[in-house]
Amino acid sequence: MESKKITVPIIRSMKAQGEKIAALTAYDYLMALFLDDAGIDLILVGDSGAMVFAGYESTIPITVDEMIYHTKAASRGIKRALLVADMPFLSFQISPEEALRNAGRFVKEGGAEAVKVEGGEPMAETVRRIVNAGIPVMGHLGLTPQSVNHFGGYKVQARTEPEVDQLISDAIALEQAGVFSIVLEKIPATAAKKVTETVTVPTIGIGAGPYCDGQILVTHDLLGLFEKFRPRFVRVYAELGKEIREACARYTEDVKLVKFPGREESY
Ligand code: KIV
After folding, report:
1. At 210, phi and psi to the nearest 5?
2. What is the spatial distance between Cα 31 and Cα 216, in angstroms, rounded to a whole number?
């Protein structure tokens, strides 16, 4: 029996019901299908795909057209999970109008059910504009990777009291602007707890400790596919990179030694 389609109101209600939200990233049809089958509640077509799928050094270069391509592919694999598309760098920062136009493309062309934007108070007007057009928005605070050059690296954020106060103000501004959830990335667990207790919308943590209303990881990290670096907050559930290398090495050897194809694999 198929379980109920996850919608934005369901994600919101999970906080009130104390049910944790399990979220992961996908950039293609097959991965989205696997995650959906596994019961993941929310699938994010993250701009992290710029790094773990396309091999860039940061999330900055990926374009709206590329993100829409990934969103379309992922949408074909999903029956149950909520599909959220990440708005890439400069697709929403220039003006609320341009942000709305791009958000609309993710929904109309990509099949996304919601979009995610990075940033706090300065993004509130933009969030309001998109939400008022009927497109649900997920916020993203703490370490916002599109601002890596401003931060000077992927460092833990909100470590001081004034920074935590700012984080809370940002979360309140996003909630008032109408977001349905907020990603909290790479911040102390105590700071994430304060935000989670302050806002009524669910917080979804990545490197933000156990007190958030849900958790998200980059799937390529969790599966051991992305080996360039492994943040401390990642739990690696499988070593698929190693398995792929071993399987393909065995295939190479079989081809070289004419052990493949065999009689049963031939016509
Ligand atoms: O791009 C991404 O995958 C993200 C998640 C890590 C939250 O923003």
Report:
1. -85, -5
2. 15
Which two three-digit tokens encode residue 102?
Answer: 């791009």
Ligand 1 centroid from CA 59, angstroms: 9
Q: 144 CA distance to ligand 1 centroid (A)? A: 9
Condensed to tens digits (0 to 9), the pLDDT of residues 142-199 reads 999 999 999 999 999 999 999 999 999 999 999 999 999 999 999 999 999 999 999 9
Cβ atoms of 219 and 237 within 8 Å: the answer is: no
Q: How far apart are CA 130 and CA 143, in angstroms?
A: 23
Angle between helices 64-75 and 29-37 (to 10 degrees): 50
Report which of 34, 60, 29 is spatially closest to residue 45, judged by C-alpha positions: 29
Neighbour count for residue 200 (Cβ, 10 Å): 8
34-81: pLDDT as tens digits: 999 999 999 999 999 999 999 999 999 999 999 999 999 999 999 999
Sign of the alpha-carbon dihedral angle for 132, 133, 136, 139: negative
Probe target for ligand 1 pocket from 106, 185, 234, with the most ligand atoms within 8 Å of CB = 185
Query: What is the structure's pLDDT at 1?
Result: 46
Q: Taking the domains of the chain in order of start, what are their residue ranges?
A: 8-236, 240-267
CATH homologous superfamily, domain 8-236: Phosphoenolpyruvate-binding domains (3.20.20.60)
DSSP string covering 94-125, please?
A: S-HHHHHHHHHHHHHTT--SEEE--BSGGGHH
Three-state DSSP class for residue 64: helix
